[in-house]
Design brief:
It contains 13 helices and 17 strands. It is of the alpha+beta class. It folds into 2 domains: 245 residues, no CATH class; 98 residues, no CATH class.
Length: 414
């Protein structure tokens, strides 16, 4: 079964004035798209297929993930919903800051040299009502960036550019725009001369953020909390229904492949007659009768959920796992880490981002794939790529090999 979605890669993102993230950038960022007057460090290296965010408790890792969910909520439901879901604009605005809450994403189409940057700024009126202050979609060729969509001060400008076109002195079509609550990106139609737009929208519509907790999964609704809607469902039962609908007659083969990834599981049985809440049972090694999911161990339920996300033939454009090591012993952590590497190391158009407090995951990655979160003296988050740490730079300059447990040794406080 082949993929039918437009693929691409997220090369970087920046966040400003969102919770403790007063101004952070990860991966390839273009600060000229951030509407601020202070200098910002340019980070000229794209994200890899695997990215790990780590740091002490309370350093802003979860806030970075929630920024993805927030923008997705804006895309799907508008800025009012996204803010109210989190207690209102004031609750998520970085204390003592100036300017709007802003986000930027740099995205590249599969097999394309050009990339696109999408930037969004959300302000707040005197009556505490949030609104879209500006929105920018820019097509980038080399060092030249070509705006194709721009919204500011109530006027929206749109022009699609073919790969051989330059903006020059071309007149943009001016369209009066009175909707300050819903993203213009969500209403733009795809264009055959600008395929990366469909790829970017696929990212906002289909990324998966899993902050899994096992206890609700034991209930009758097989709940798997999600921070935003997804075609893959907002619950474990929804995820299973998605697989049944997506794979059809191939579902049995798919679940058997999933079973082979989970220790001691021989077969996964699915009663698809329960349309709203499919019943699951697991045939375990050494046991005659299958065990319902309500009686499974935490680790088995987690591995089952992660395996579905990792093994799809038509995967989500970005999978984000929050602290996937929770509830796993050393063996399970090793097996999960091994599976993640197998699926993503050789897949340039599949991406996974994780947060973790455990060195096992970081020690298996390159320092360029690990980003360390800390709090500065003002209480705001600062982020540094591990390979930029001075202690590691000195090691690399001396041509010394980085030991397998480089993270454990160099970042013991994390």
């Amino acid at each position: 079964m082949g993929t039918d979605t437009v693929m691409g890669v997220l090369e970087g993102f920046w966040i400003r004035n969102f919770k403790s993230l007063k101004q952070v950038g990860i991966g390839t960022c273009f600060p000229k798209f951030v509407y601020v007057d202070d200098e910002t460090k340019v980070l000229p290296y794209p994200l890899d297929s695997l990215t790990l965010l780590t740091g002490d408790v309370g350093t802003g890792k979860s806030s970075a993930l929630d920024a993805f969910s927030f923008v997705s909520d804006c895309y799907r439901h508008g800025v009012d919903f996204a803010c109210l879901k989190r207690g209102g604009y004031d609750a998520i605005y970085s204390r003592g800051s100036k300017g709007a809450i802003s986000f930027g994403f740099h995205y590249r189409q599969e097999d394309e040299l050009e990339a696109v940057t999408y930037a969004l700024s959300i302000g707040c009126a005197k009556n505490k009502s949030p609104f879209i202050e500006s929105e920018l979609l820019a097509y980038q060729r080399g060092k030249e960036s070509l705006p194709v969509f721009f919204l500011q001060n109530g006027v929206r400008s749109i022009r699609y550019l073919a790969p051989d076109e330059r903006i020059g002195n071309l007149e943009l079509t001016k369209i009066e725009f009175t909707d300050y609550k819903n993203l213009g990106l969500a209403s733009l139609e795809s264009h055959p001369k600008f395929p990366v737009l469909a790829s970017l929208r696929n990212l906002f519509e289909n990324w998966v953020l899993s902050d899994f907790t096992p206890d609700p999964a034991r209930g009758l609704d097989l709940s798997l909390p999600r921070r935003h809607e997804s075609p893959r469902g907002m619950s474990l039962s929804g995820l299973v229904r998605y697989v049944l609908e997506r794979y059809g007659q191939e579902s049995e083969t798919f679940f058997q492949r999933i079973a082979s990834q989970i220790p001691d599981v021989e077969t996964i049985l699915v009663d698809s007659t329960q349309i709203e809440k499919p019943r699951l049972a697991f045939k375990m090694s050494g046991l005659d009768q299958p065990i319902p999911i309500t009686l499974l161990s935490n680790g088995t339920i987690r591995l089952f959920t992660y395996a579905i996300l990792l093994e799809e033939n038509d995967p989500a454009p970005l999978i984000i796992l929050e602290e996937p090591e929770n509830g796993f012993d050393l063996l399970y952590r090793w097996k999960l880490s091994e599976r993640i590497h197998h699926r993503f190391d050789e897949s340039p158009n599949r991406q996974l981002m994780m947060t973790t407090h455990h060195s096992d995951f970081a020690d298996t990655l390159y320092p360029s794939q690990v980003w360390v979160f800390e709090k500065n003296q003002e209480g705001f988050t600062v982020v540094e790529r591990a390979s930029d740490a001075l202690v590691l730079q000195e090691v690399m300059e001396k041509n010394q090999p980085i030991e397998p447990r480089w993270f454990s040794e160099q970042f013991k406080n994390h």
